[in-house]
Amino acid sequence: MKKVGLKEIAEYVGVSIALVSYVLNGQAEIKQVSKVTADQIKKAAKQLNYRPNQIAKSLKMLKTHTIGLVVADINYRFSTGITRAIEAEAKNANYTVLFGSSNENEETFAELVNVLINRQVDGLILVPAENTQEQIKMLQKAEIPFVLIDRNFPEIKTNHITLDNRKAAYDATIHLVKQGHKRIAFFNYKTTFNHLHDRNRGYQDALKDSNIVFKPHWLKEINSVNRQAEMQQSLNNMLNGDEPCDAAFFATDTLAISGLKYLNKQKIQVPQQVSVLSFDESEAFELFYSPVTHLRQPLQKMGQAAVSTLFELINHNKINKQISFQSDLVIGQSCRE
Amino acid sequence: MKKVGLKEIAEYVGVSIALVSYVLNGQAEIKQVSKVTADQIKKAAKQLNYRPNQIAKSLKMLKTHTIGLVVADINYRFSTGITRAIEAEAKNANYTVLFGSSNENEETFAELVNVLINRQVDGLILVPAENTQEQIKMLQKAEIPFVLIDRNFPEIKTNHITLDNRKAAYDATIHLVKQGHKRIAFFNYKTTFNHLHDRNRGYQDALKDSNIVFKPHWLKEINSVNRQAEMQQSLNNMLNGDEPCDAAFFATDTLAISGLKYLNKQKIQVPQQVSVLSFDESEAFELFYSPVTHLRQPLQKMGQAAVSTLFELINHNKINKQISFQSDLVIGQSCRE
DNA sequence: GATATCACTTTAAACGATTAAACCAAATAT
DNA sequence: ATATTTGGTTTAATCGTTTAAAGTGATATC
Lengths: 337, 337
Description:
Two copies of one chain form a homodimer.
Chain A: H1 6-13, H2 17-24, H3 35-47, H4 54-61, E1 66-71, H5 77-92, E2 96-101, H6 106-118, E3 123-126, H7 133-141, E4 146-149, E5 160-163, H8 165-178, E6 184-189, H9 194-209, E7 219-222, H10 227-240, E8 247-250, H11 253-265, E9 275-279, H12 283-287, E10 293-296, H13 299-316, E11 322-325, E12 328-330
Parallel strand pairs in A: 1-2, 1-3, 3-4, 4-5, 5-11, 6-7, 6-8, 8-9, 9-10
Antiparallel strand pairs in A: 10-12
The first copy, chain A, binds a DNA duplex (30 and 30 nucleotides) through helix 2 and helix 4.
């Protein structure tokens, strides 16, 4: 079976390539192609099993109908959720999503972005890795349409879709306080990410507003490269000081899972000995013996917003949107009453 | 910032497009381009921030250096694992992966395959959805290089990478028997998938070889559209008959999670009241109060095998490989001793 | 009978790259 | 003095589309 292009159809029917193109693009009417020829062409196309070469089409049209998506790590629940949402939304508009995972690595991120640009994606949706500000600035200079999601750099003015991280952390902390907790530990990554700092802020603001004096050692900043070990140590410190904390609030699902693993190993009962609350979702949260109370991000809405913002950007050019979404606090049984 | 192509560089330096192409493709030596011009060109390319248009390149070369991957559902642990492995392997060879998820839907699968072909991927790695035999045959007729992974259709001779599902189920069942279980229920999807049937076979063969007479009602076939409800009913039947089963063996991670959720809700103790064993992996398995004994698939090896098989196919054409991998039984604490 | 209009159809340039082949001037060989 | 080689460079076709513009033959208009 040889490749069949417009040329083959044209030869088969005995007309010019142009006519075939017109007909197969639904321009038969406007170009006044005779019904007879049009039908012949359509029939031939089906018979020969014609598949338009999108590569050639893209080259001519200067549009690929493709958007590039770079997530931070395909193993995050956030990534799969947002990918699903974005793919579905893109498909509606007849766009394809080219997808890559930076694994939180700066170079991989840059590389992926470059690969995608070279493939002439019409725009990008990015979950930037740490320290990728230069890449982002480069995109702006090159006038490539893109929108950030989940994370943003406050020093760079970009279109972005984020969670209202401060509010989420604030509300969750208040929830813990209302449950009677007085000493709440917060586990976050040691990071330069603004969105994670916002979570710290929300947590601390809530304590303040509840007239609880924040003790610096309640805020556990964990190095991601050594997560499990540091988590163990932090949890130990938290539980065994002379004023042990009575609740652990985790800034991400990955941190929570690390933490829960260790609590399990140590046979520490949740919520009897310690209450647990976490950002994000996880299959494991539901299945934990005390389903974990968590902050669910509206991934679908966020994905939709990212895609529609990107489309605006692609079509009408210059816009400036910073959209922030609220999370839901999903109550489980991991916080003592 | 306007787009810069070979033309712009050529004009800038004052040479022909051909020279620029030669130099930037590392053909300066063999085409005897003078050092001076070559350096000028390289410098200009960098200065103007030239990005080769892969679309144009692909059109000319009839190669896109892209492989298409269609997984069954991006939310499966299998999918993310295999995607990671495939992406890493492809990247080594300077290939990009175009990725899509069929959500186990026949039409979506066909659509995705078509989109990928139209984008002229050099080859496909597919986790076929149910009843997609015709699509697969079409690919063969069209002589498009592809390899199936995870699942295959025995009636169609294809290249495929699978798990030795019969053996895996067999070994796991034997494990349960050795732990003293006499009445082992097996939960599988009601499906036409061969790879899942193999799991049934392995389970039954193991019972036979252990001189346990298999009772048909031990084999629970669950309709995926109504999973949670059917799972509840099946588990109830299994636990509450006059001869209740003492072990539940799940054919997939998704089934196990459904099952565990219900066991949790009913406060049925694992493994005291019932032992649990499952195919696949899950964050939740580790975190369950009795970490779930499970059959881990060698995703990385499988991904590598898929990519390298595909590359052989793309390069040296006709080959015929059916590779089957062994799984590891990861012992947890969900099976009573 | 000449011209304009209409209904269809073809021609050919372009998109941005690759590359065989042709070209040209200077150096070397005969 | 003429031919050949060498080093360096350009020309032009090509990949599979799209589409403005031009072409064609028949019919309608004055």
